[in-house]
Amino acid sequence: SSTLVVAIDGPSGSGKSSTSRGVAAALGLRYLDTGAMFRAMTWAMLRDRVDVHDAGAVGAHAATPRLTSGTDPDGPTITVDGEDVSAAIRLPDVTAAVSPVSAVPEVRARLLELQREVIGDGGIVVEGRDIGSVVWPQAPVKVYLTADPSARALRRAAEEGGADLAATEQSLLARDKIDSGRATAPLTMPAGAHHIDTTPYTLDEVIGLVVALVEAVE
Ligand code: C5P
């Protein structure tokens, strides 16, 4: 049904993005990557030479960049002031700065409004850290994905073309700590979420588990 929203939360490297895109493609739903929105906001801060560790400066700049988010699960395009930043937001400088930027309340408020606009009437899989808890608590299907830190680092390092494993795991754990510890909308398992530890499963198995949860509510 068109009011369907599938909320998928969890830490980095838990398999959220691949799972969310796979579920959306399997069910013919749209897809929203809210992490990409926080990355795009961070990219704009770096472009405009805002000190990302100065929460006041970041907050004052949060309304400036114009952002658009595509919802095609096969290749969502994200733009900042008309420029396609889909590739640039994955670079290490953005990854290193995204968690402090995401902790700033004005950034979260701005993106919350954009996220709710995109979700609209539903028919969408939405992935992030606070979708089931804050952005769309009324979602009929909520999933919380986790995996062992070593499995998460292995996946992320493979995605990044063979990056150093120990360094990747350290960077994931550092982001978890900031994301879980912040005052506004911290990473948490939402009430009513199905917790799936993806460590022992293949991607296709996890997609199958989530598709079954969606089919059970429809
Ligand atoms: O999902 P991804 O790893 O691309 O997210 C990048 C960062 O964006 C996260 O580490 C977190 O700081 C922030 N984020 C957030 N809330 C969301 C999605 C992402 O704070 N809903």
Features:
218 residues; Rossmann fold; 49% helix; single chain; five-stranded parallel sheet
Q: Helix and strand succession?
A: EHEHHEEEHHEHEHHEH
Count the DSSP helices: 9
CATH topology: Rossmann fold
Poorly predicted regions are none
Helical fraction = 40-55%
Overall geometry? globular
Strand order of the largest sheet: 2-6-1-7-8
Quaternary assembly = single chain
Number of domains: 1
CATH C-level label: Alpha Beta
Family: Belongs to the cytidylate kinase family. Type 1 subfamily.
GO molecular function: ATP binding; dCMP kinase activity
Main location: cytoplasm
Catalytic activity: CMP + ATP = CDP + ADP; dCMP + ATP = dCDP + ADP
Task: Describe the fold and architecture.
The chain has 218 residues and is α/β, with parallel strands linked by helices. The protein has one domain (5-217): P-loop containing nucleotide triphosphate hydrolases (Rossmann fold), CATH 3.40.50.300. The protein is 49% helix and 15% strand. The protein is built from nine helices and eight strands. The protein has helices spanning 16-27, 34-47, 55-61, 92-102, 105-119, 131-135, 149-159, 165-181, 203-217, and strands at residues 5-9, 30-33, 67-69, 78-80, 83-84, 124-128, 141-146, 194-197. A five-stranded parallel sheet has the order 2-6-1-7-8, with helices on both faces. A three-stranded antiparallel sheet has the order 3-4-5, covered by helices on one side. The model has no long low-confidence stretch (mean pLDDT 94). The site of cytidine-5'-monophosphate (C5P) has 13 residues, from α2, α4 and α8. This is Cytidylate kinase. It comes from Nocardioides donggukensis. Belongs to the cytidylate kinase family. Type 1 subfamily. It catalyses: CMP + ATP = CDP + ADP; dCMP + ATP = dCDP + ADP.
